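step: validate -> pass
step: tokenize input -> pass
step: predict -> running
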Amino acid sequence: MNLGVISYSLAVSSSLVLALLLLTAWRTRFFGSLLFIAVIVMTTLWAISAAWLAEFGTSQAGLVYRLFEVLRYIAWYALLLGLLAPFSHAKRWLRYLALVALLFPLPLLFAHLAPDWVLSHVPYAMGSDIRTLGHVILAIIGLVIVEQIFRNVHQEQLWRVKHLLLGVGAAFVYDFFLYADALLFNQIDGAIWDARGFINALVVPMLAVSVARNPDWSGDIFVSRKAVFHTTSLLMAGIYLVATAMVGYYIRDYGGSWGRAFQIVFLSCSLVVLITLLLSGQARAWLKVFLGRNFFQYQYDYRDEWLKLIHTLALDKTGLELKVRAVKALADIVDSGGGMLWTRTEEGRFFHNTSWNLSWQVTETVTPESSLIRFLEQQRKVIELGEYGRKSDSYPDLQLPEWLRDIEYAWLIAPLILDDELTGFIVLVRPHAPHQLNWEEQDLLKTAGMQIASYVAFLETSEALMDARQFEAFNRLSSYVVHDLKNVSAQLSLVVTNAQRHRDNPAFIEDAINTVSNATAKMNRVLAQLRKGSSEETHKVIARVIDVLQEVISIRSGSRPVPVLNGCDSELLLLIERERLVNILSHLVHNAQEATDDDGAVMLRAVSKGGDIIIEIVDNGCGMDEQFIR
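step: predict -> pass
step: emit ->
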């Protein structure tokens, strides 16, 4: 297979790929129809006929190729004139240009269909070159139309069509060069003709960019940013390797006796440089900025950016805590190398909470009355510190704190807004590649800041709830300990009260010793439970209910009114943790005593009913009213 077949086959493949994109999203609009005709019917079929001619070289193949070439020009003229028409202001010369562009190819088409008639009616010297001259004029007409579009289209519209104009203009210039050379030397140069397919294949991606920037032409054709990034990276790497190989061969052939060694050294160094560039974060950042600015309607693929943001915040695969990941998520959007998070305290002040890839620590706090906080709350604008230094009037009444000026490489301050309130802000350092913030990135950073603010607020709320639960557990533990202490205190108070009257009574001394021993054992059990936790298993025993109630009465006899036993079957038995049941009943009796006057009554009784044992503590105190209970 010769070079011409490969060249034009590549043009066919690229045209068919774009054709498939157009067919899947075609909206049957005016420009969509012109693109469909120009790209599908003409450019693709022209490239097929050229490949056919390169392979077989028959006169029939040559005739088909020349016919499709003229028709291809007509289709491109129709597209370009359609672009120019809305901006021509009805100038008369445009009508003449359209008339020439659409009518001139017809005689040339006739010249290709009837070459014998042309040669018999035109002088020989001119007749042999008239078809070549016609193609030169076709290229010139195309270049004139492209130039007029560049001159007349508004600047805003030029951004949408400039890649189309550059690509088609490049094809016209190459055609002019091909046929002007053929007119000069009276034959088409084979090498130039073979390379023409590659040139037209390179035009198709530029056309795809313009189609993507004009969704009203042929639908929302989407070109993946990742695909463009990786494809461009591979293309640049391929060009680099080809250039390296060419230089290497040159060194080998002209380097003398040391040429082979120099070639190996050069190729090795070139490979190291290529790997370094491929792994360089700065090079990747620069390429992303370049592609975003020049090849896409919007700089960011918002779906990918949002998924990446949520993925960074929601999944902890890096071992970083959520607040650190929040800084990283915002920094990744603009390829920043680090940053710090500031959050609001309950008192309203802002403090340096955490950092990512930034060792700088700030101990100062920012008050709500500071100029920085007022600006972020009122303007809700991302502050670019470089722009602040150049154009301070863009940030009215903003005075940056001293600690911010001391941070090396500080670049942006992004507000974190939640429920229409400033909950914090993030300071980012400069990215790897030089970067100028635009309106699109401003909006993206502010929107991402709102999402990050909700995550940070959720985390802080969870931490506050956890603290509240810990305090609740502590309060429950305190209540438990206080009740036990009150029981022990009541026992010891009873001993002290009776000691004045019965200090000489041996029975009292023995009873006092037993009471103190019991109180000591109880306190030791409380301390052991505090050390080991409430989950410690306790020993259950079979106890008579009447003995438990009498023990409770003995414990609470030191307070008034003194509780009394009002009935209990001595045969009632329970398998219980005796100490815990005594404590519970003692607490209840204590509550009843506090709610009852000294001359009142507190009674304990136990009955068996339906297989259950019911223990009742009854008093005639004031009780709790309905409102208090509710």
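step: describe -> The longest strand covers residues 410-418.
step: cleanup -> pass
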